[in-house]
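REQUEST FORM: STRUCTURE PREDICTION
Request ID: SP-0412
Submitted by: Lab K.M.
Chain count: 1
Length (residues): 789
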Amino acid sequence: MPIRPPALDDRRFDDLVAELIERIPAHTQEWTNPRVGDPGRTLLELFAWLGDALLYRANLIPERQRLQFLRLLGKPLRPARPARGLVALNLKEKEIPAAFSLKPRATFTGPVPFEAADEITVLPVTGQFFYKRPVERASLPLGLEEALSSIHNVQGALSPYETAALFADGKPVSAGFDLIAQTADHCLWLALLAPLAPQPAQQADFKARTVAALERGAGTGQTLNLGFVPALPSVDPLAPVSASAEIPCVWEISVNTTGQQPTADRPWQPEYLRLDRVKDTTKGLTRPGIIRLALPPSGLIHAPTNNLLEDRQAGVGDHPPRLDDEAAAALLIGWIRLRPQDQTSLVSAAETRFTEHSDAGIVLPDPAGATPTLSNSLEHLRISWASVNALELEQLVTRQNQVIGESDGSADQEFQLPLTSIEPETLNIQVEEESGWSNWNRVDDIAALEWDAAIARNARVFQLDPEAGTIRFGDGVRGRIPSPGRRIRFTQLRAGGGRAGNVTPGVLAKVAAITLEGDATVGKHFTVQQPLPFSGGEDAENLAEAEKRIPGFIRHKERAVTRSDYETLAYETPGVAVGRVEILARFKPQQRHFNVPGVISVMALPDAPLSGAPNPRADRPFLEAVHSWLNDRRPLGTELYVIGCEYVPVAVSIAISVHEEYGPDTVLQEVKEALRRLLWPLRGGGFQKEGWPLGGTLSNRELAVEAARVSGVSEVNGLNLFQRVRNVWQPLGDARDGREQDLPLQPWQLPELLSVIAIASDSSPVTLAPNASPVPANAVAVPVVPPLC
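STATUS: Completed
RESULT:
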């Protein structure tokens, strides 16, 4: 939609015609019927049309001036940001097993176009994740533990488990799966399964074809794409945020290197080969992304038996989990497991992590002698979703090899690209010269080229405006001018973005891809699975939004020095919606100490609409984005921390008298909404509508004043404040007879209103029932089955 700036003259064609007709009696009284079609009326409409065209061109002046001002500042409009997410490709049922190597930029149909960020080899396997779910010993039948020890010849304590499936049907676990706390062996097991054949008699052939497809040739295995989405843990809101340390884990596959087929007399001994990570966009399992594993030759991959008659140790100890499902066991071709590294590696990773510079917000060893730990980083390995044959998609489209114009030899030539919101890193511009097409380099600012005049004059460079989709060449002094008559083309560009790309799960269903051999019909062999929503899409900045940045930019010049600099820049963090920023100068968050020289803490909260509990909280990706943005702009030597807010749970009970002409239910609901709005931490909350202020003291009298302002309230008869102690609501005192209740807050704390009880009575309750505390919005009430004798 085009930007409509304030007009110098907002009259249009109809307005001009009406104004001319109104002037007729004053100038031509004898013209009494200026009807449509009259020659005089036609002349008026002609002049109105000419005037409308002139006003349209005049009204473009403010927009052009403001855009030129932004351009002179070097602050063009920000381009749209693309949404990103993960999908998995599955071979359709009854397809003959074969590996398909797809070229990059495979396209997926949806509300907006999406492209794959990389190539992929889709293997004819499905992956089912399993884990060894611990079983309480107390729940085992009497004598079963001793019998298991005897059967499996286990010396020492048993750790009973059940084989449990994870991510069934590709569905994510919203709360996350804890690899350490929820497993008996601290491992996640991936069963590689061959596709199901149309007929049972064909299953052996399908399995053999699948194993053969896992080998690229000449004893080289294929690469397996694993999609991985961690469930990021909740963190202390005042814990310092920095780059996450990679989680020290190992990917291994079950192999048989003996060259002999295991038998009942000589069963398979647990043997695993460590898999190399060819590519890892998860940054060590700390971000959603793709892990590409290099598989060994297919002849080494081994699937241990699940039959106890063939191997009495099946599923025991270091063996993969035992599959008692015969149908799944018949399709099994191998196991891949994810397990923690040994403790030596953990110590090494911890030492590496805690030797970074402290002024970037990293925790350093305590000078008093306390040894830092990973807090145990493995405790935070929670997994939300994983799948094989996964791809990372971006809301971008690619164009290649297109001529965009011809040089006329003038200075500062500008050419329009066929798309807007360009991804700068992918744009490749070439200019035709006598020796052929030559590549020209992109620079951020042509005016800031090399100080050497000779070098600057001959530099083959151009400047890109990503939002507008234009490129500009030099003037012969700063940047070379393309020779007259020479063509300019791009060999590749990618563009796109917008909030429309933040699609919900299951929207993407079809893929159009091309194999390395050039087959464009390969998409018909796959189904697309999109279990998670896409995120990160943001519309391009408009002129009004860009103008709001001008005063702040003039003040801070992209350097954070003063309190207002940090605040303004934090609000401008790209890719996240910041709803509130507070600057806590000289505050060391992890120690809760003020007056620490050289330290500044930035409290940031994400933007959210006004609602009930819980209040908006800053998660780790949000804080990391703000920290990364500010860290590049802080003065050297400043110790920067970006933190969240610590909420103090409170509850309120209030009794009011209602005017006779008002409905009690409506007034009571409006009183609850008024109290929630008053204590809301973002814009719109608080007495100043800027959010409830940090720290200070929360008083029941302030809340009573706000409730008394609600239409229909004739009197506030009582208001009690409650604080939660060990999950029990305790009153701050009895507020009857006008007694005051105060809840003091620390400078880094805000109140979080979790429960409001409003009644029409002479006095408010001084206790809260146990069910007064809120429950999650998605909770479902389920009756408890009574015990039977």
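NOTES: The chain has five domains: 13-73, 124-138+159-344+379-388, 397-495, 556-640, 646-772.
Reviewed by: T.R.
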